[in-house]
Specification:
This protein has 17 helices and 13 strands. With 426 residues, it is an alpha/beta fold. The chain has three domains: 144 residues, Rossmann fold, CATH 3.40.50.300; 107 residues, Arc Repressor Mutant, subunit A (Orthogonal Bundle); 114 residues, Trna Endonuclease, Chain: A, domain 1. The relative contact order is 0.09.
């Protein structure tokens, strides 16, 4: 298709696409390029579509190009000029999707950025260009917007449910719990919206991650070992994962593999944003780096549809994902990121799911789908060791405040935490 025709037709396509709103904050600026990053199939392209609609942009206001749809050499400095020829003005917003398909894209983007005339947004494919590489290659000239699978607040709004807990009736509470439980097993947009059978989706998803994001990109030769590693990691969801133990297990079966290869697989799987390895909290950096991590997945569906369904692990994984997004409503802990989230283990070996560190402040969060006394005991033990006056337990539907020896544990239902963000913990 001729380029001018493509630019016009693409906007017509976007206009007719049903786009679900996302509650994702971004910085509208001409002083930096906005890099939209996130795991495969989380909705990076649809986020660009969402921006055209949420910002109420008219056709003359923006330029949209998916470079995997263009089959002719392009100098992107000419695109605003072509846009002006078509619409009589330069675009205010420029959206570049699949930027890796543009040769020497960094230099071209920088040349466009230098003019400081446009709001520029770019995305890249994880099979060709890691999210962190976009940021690195535009070092000092980019701000990052992270896209994850749907949050539960977004899922509730899609279902037509919103409001504050104080104004919600018991009937509405029942509806909220129904929607949350229905989607607790996966929050990927395609699964939530019913576009595909979940089991088929995750089988294909894992294959794409293995073959396109890892094997093709990194030139991995040992496909069998890579698959074994990833399936072992997924099977360890919400539990500690030791490369050393996996290495010994493989070695005992007479299979040859180096420990260095397995550690390389661990780094790669985190780089392509399919797995997160959560470190155990320690005040010393070196000691912290040497701890055995816990596994969390970019979406709990990887466990639920490839291993077995588990609502308890799904809820814990969902709370983790909310934490690494850096919830702005976590009272007194605004602005933290994934590097500020850990798990905690008491001196007698009891594990508390999450510890958030922000400056000199610490907060403990335990997740208990079905709560019992052991959850309370280990949280109290951790509070004593860390000298904390307050901690939190997120449950499916229990709510209470427990006070003992001047220390307070707030027990909060998962659905209520979703509606008000983590502000309920403040």
């Amino acid at each position: 298709m001729e380029l001018r025709g493509y630019l016009v037709d693409r906007k017509e396509d976007i206009k007719n696409i049903d786009v679900k709103p996302r509650k994702i904050k971004f910085e509208k600026t001409k002083d930096f390029v906005t890099s939209v990053i996130g795991p495969r199939r989380a909705g990076k392209t649809y986020f660009l579509y969402h921006l055209t609609k949420s910002l109420r942009l008219q056709e003359e206001d923006y330029l949209f190009v998916n470079f995997e749809e263009i089959f002719e050499p392009i100098n992107i400095l000419n695109l605003p000029i072509i846009h002006k020829e078509l619409y009589g003005k330069l675009p205010d917003f420029i959206f570049f999707d699949e930027i890796q398909a543009l040769g020497k894209w960094e230099k071209q983007i920088y040349s466009l950025y230098e003019k400081k005339r446009y709001h520029i947004f770019i995305t890249g494919s994880s099979s060709k260009l890691l999210s962190k590489e976009i940021v690195t290659q535009l070092r000092g000239r980019t701000v990052t917007t992270k896209i994850f699978p749907f949050s539960f607040k977004e899922i509730l709004e899609i279902a037509g449910i919103s409001g504050e807990p104080k104004t919600i009736s018991s009937y509405e509470e029942g509806s909220i719990k129904h929607v949350i439980k229905k989607h607790l097993l996966s929050q990927f947009p395609d699964v939530v919206l019913g576009n595909i059978n979940p089991r088929d989706f995750f089988r294909d998803y894992l294959s794409l991650v293995i073959y396109r994001d890892i094997i093709e990109r990194y030139g991995i030769k040992n496909r069998y070992m890579l698959e074994l590693f990833l399936r072992s990691v997924i099977d360890s969801n919400c539990r500690e994962f030791s490369v050393h133990k996996l290495y010994n297990s493989i070695k005992s079966q007479g299979i040859k593999v180096s420990k260095k290869t397995l550690y390389n697989f661990q780094k790669i799987s985190e780089d392509v944003m399919v797995v997160y390895f959560l470190k155990k909290f320690s005040r010393g950096l070196r000691k912290r780096e040497l701890t055995i991590p816990k596994v969390y997945l970019t979406d709990p569906g990887l466990y639920n549809y490839l291993v077995e369904k588990d609502f308890s692990k799904s809820m814990e994984n969902a709370v983790f994902l909310e934490l690494i997004k850096g919830s702005e409503s976590l009272g007194g802990f605004e602005g933290f990121d994934a590097g500020d989230v850990f798990y905690y283990k008491t001196r007698d070996g009891r594990e508390v799911d999450f510890l958030i560190r922000k400056d000199s402040k610490l907060v403990l969060i335990e997740v208990a789908y079905s709560m019992d006394e052991e959850h309370i005991r280990k949280v109290r033990k951790a509070m004593e060791e860390l000298n904390l006056k307050r901690a939190f337990i997120v449950t499916w539907d229990e709510e209470d405040v427990l006070v003992d020896k001047g220390r307070e544990i707030r027990i909060t239902p998962f659905w209520k935490m979703i509606l008000v963000g983590f502000g309920v913990l403040g």
